[in-house]
Structure formats: structure tokens, C-alpha cells
Specification:
elongated, 369 residues, binds zinc ion
């Protein structure tokens, strides 16, 4: 989260830039500068006074505009979501494209179809407009740098559209495919089928990449394979937790500890009870949570002198029993924690852990992970 820079807000959605993005902008600028050197050379190359600084400035502008196009692609998706009232938390522009973090997955195939289609549609329109404009710019004189820039931008936008329409997760084409399947079968079956096709596609690309020594293709194949598996898993989890509330799966019997307990005592308690974390209480009031990870930070010899209150996490994330189990799952994975105290009208009523969620998933889907 800290590795990205907020640029501003559009439609209330924060637009962020991942640090890897700055590297890729420089790389694109360099690639464009090298690619356009012979072309620009013909216009400005008067022997020794080839204006390299001009070429570099234009290349940098080119790289920034190209990634503004990637941003517009993402905004295309977001606009449809925004119009239908879906929450988009942020858009982060990464190494090779953008990621829109959605608050919820649309479970409506028609909406997903429109959302998935909007991004490639934006790229396609940008591509065509840039190519047409470059034609106009060429009329002025041959090897006009603006025409070269526009033409390259147009082609890259069309490539971005084509790449995103690959029928595989996590590309838009994979989502289109799933949405199309989902209009005629249950969502989970549709996801499995789309993910299966995506994996087959990835294997095909991998074999092709291997025989043609194309490393970029190998990389994309890997990316697609992992993306398909992750999408499948995430959907299975969401679907199997559907309708289950935190109160149904939490452990109501909560063992708590006091802040003045020593870490030595805590360690013995953890051994005895085989628990990995405890809420820390002061009477009825919850002060924090202490886990095995907090214990491990303190060397063995200092444990009888250190108290729970000194090492516990005071920043407390809690959940209500009537919340959906999938919300607990999302909170834990986003925050990187393993358990959440369950609070009902101010008092601790239970604790829900990853193990509880995994058990619920296994019981309702009849399979393990
Ligand atoms: Zn997209």
C-alpha cells in the first residue's frame, strides 16, 4: 500500500501509481527513443547536430501519454461500475497495466459483461483515433515526429485491446467469457469453465513460447495460468461462504488474557491450549490482541520480564457477528491477520479465525484447499 503514490481522484476514485510504473515509463521512453532514432534522424539529422534532447523529450511525453491511455482503459471499467453504483476503492497503475480494486464482485453477468467490455472498448477507440490523427499529421511533411508518436500510440492501444481480449483470467477476455457462460449456468460452474479454458490457453502459449524461444510469451503464459487459478479459488471461496455469517462459525468460548501476564506465562498457556492468539482484556474492555508472532519477537530469556501489554497489537480490527463470513475473509487477507475479535454492542462475544473460515469452506463445498 505504501509503495504507491496517489495522483488524484476521478469520479471519487483515487488513482494511484505503483513505483514499478516509474521504471516502466523510463523504459518505454528509452525504447521509443531508440525505435524512433532513424525516423527522427531523417527529419532533424543534419550530420553532427542531431537533436537528441528533443528526441528524448518527445519520448518521455510519449511514455506518459501511453500510460494515460492505460489509465483511461481502467477508467472505462470503473465508469460502468460507478454508473451502476458499485464501489471501486482505487485504481493502481502497475508495471504492465492497471488494476481496479473493487469493493465487491458483480455477480450479475450482464453487468460484468458490460464492465469487462468497457476497458478494451476504450483502448480500441483510442487506437483508431490515434492512427487516424497520425494520418492527418503525415500530410504536413514526411517523418513528422508527432505523426510517428500518434501512429505508435495507436498501434500500442490496439495491441492493448487485443491482449486484454485474450480469453483468459485475469484479462478482460476471461471475465467476458465467464459472464457469457454465467448467463446459462451457475456462477461457480461458469468460473471453473472459464478458468479451465484460460489454463489451457496458458499451456498452449507456454509451449509456443518454448519452441519459439519467446520469453515474453512464457512470461505471459505464467501470468495467465496463475491468474486463472487465483480467480477460480477466490470465486470458490466467495460462493461457498455465501449466506454464512460470522456468528455461525466463530468460537463463542473465548479465552482471554490480561495485559500484565508475562510472556513466559503466555507461552505456557499457548502450549497447553494450542491457541495461537488471545484477546487482551481489562475487565469487560478489549485492549488489544496478542499472537504467537508477538511472542516470538521477544528473546526467550526476556520473556519472564516482559508483559503482554508491552508487545500486543493495540490497533484493533473487529467484526460484528451479523457480518458475512466472506467479509471476515476479505478483512483478514487485506490486513494480513489470522483472527478477528467479534464484538456485539460493545462487548466481546467470540473470535473468528482463518481456521474457522477454512473449515466453513470445506464443509460447504465438500472439498479442501
Ligand atoms: Zn481491462
Amino acid at each position: 500500500m505504501n509503495s504507491s503514490l496517489q495522483l488524484g481522484k476521478i469520479m471519487g476514485i483515487p488513482i494511484r501509481l505503483h513505483w514499478s510504473f516509474l521504471l516502466i515509463i523510463l523504459y518505454i521512453a528509452w525504447a521509443f527513443a531508440s525505435f524512433s532514432e532513424p525516423l527522427f534522424g531523417r527529419t532533424y539529422g543534419f550530420g553532427a547536430i542531431e537533436p537528441a534532447s528533443l528526441r528524448w523529450t518527445l519520448s518521455l511525453v510519449f511514455a506518459v501519454v501511453l500510460f494515460a491511455c492505460v489509465g483511461l482503459h481502467e477508467l472505462g471499467h470503473s465508469y460502468v461500475a460507478y454508473k451502476s453504483g458499485l464501489g471501486i476503492k482505487s485504481i493502481t497503475l502497475y508495471f504492465f497495466g492497471g488494476v481496479s480494486a473493487m469493493q465487491e464482485i458483480p455477480r450479475d453477468p450482464r453487468l460484468e459483461l458490460q464492465m469487462a467490455f468497457a476497458g478494451p472498448a476504450v483502448s480500441g477507440i483510442l487506437g483508431i483515433v490515434c492512427v487516424l490523427l497520425s494520418d492527418l499529421a503525415y500530410i504536413g511533411y514526411e517523418h513528422n515526429p508527432v505523426a510517428i508518436m500518434l501512429w505508435t500510440l495507436g498501434v500500442l492501444n490496439l495491441m492493448l485491446m487485443a491482449f486484454n481480449l485474450l480469453p483468459a483470467f485475469p484479462m478482460d477476455g476471461g471475465r467476458l467469457l465467464r459472464a457469457w457462460f454465467a448467463t446459462r449456468m451457475p456462477y461457480i460452474t461458469a468460473t471453473r469453465r472459464a478458468a479451465g479454458l484460460g489454463k489451457m490457453f496458458a499451456i498452449l502459449m507456454f509451449v509456443l513460447g518454448l519452441f519459439s524461444f519467446n520469453f515474453l510469451l512464457l512470461f505471459v503464459a505464467f501470468f495467465v495460468y496463475v491468474g486463472a487459478s487465483e480467480e477460480e479459488k477466490a470465486t470458490e471461496i466467495n460462493v461457498s461462504l455465501e449466506g454464512i455469517r460470522v456468528g455461525d462459525i466463530m468460537s463463542a468460548q473465548v479465552r482471554t488474557v490480561n495485559a500484565d501476564m508475562t510472556l513466559q506465562e503466555l507461552k505456557e498457556l499457548m502450549f497447553q491450549e494450542k491457541h495461537r492468539g488471545y484477546p487482551v482484556m481489562d475487565g469487560e474492555k478489549i485492549l488489544g490482541i496478542v499472537t504467537i508472532a508477538d511472542l516470538q519477537k521477544v528473546p526467550d530469556e526476556d520473556r519472564s520480564l516482559t508483559r503482554v501489554g508491552q508487545v500486543m497489537a493495540r490497533k484493533l480490527y473487529v467484526i460484528a457477528p451479523q457480518e458475512e463470513a466472506s467479509t471476515a475473509m476479505r478483512m483478514m487477507s487485506e490486513l494480513g491477520i489470522r483472527r478477528l475479535p467479534v464484538i456485539d454492542s460493545g462487548s466481546l462475544v467470540g473470535i473468528v479465525s482463518r481456521e474457522d473460515l477454512v473449515r466453513a469452506i470445506e464443509l460447504s463445498s465438500g472439498q479442501g484447499f
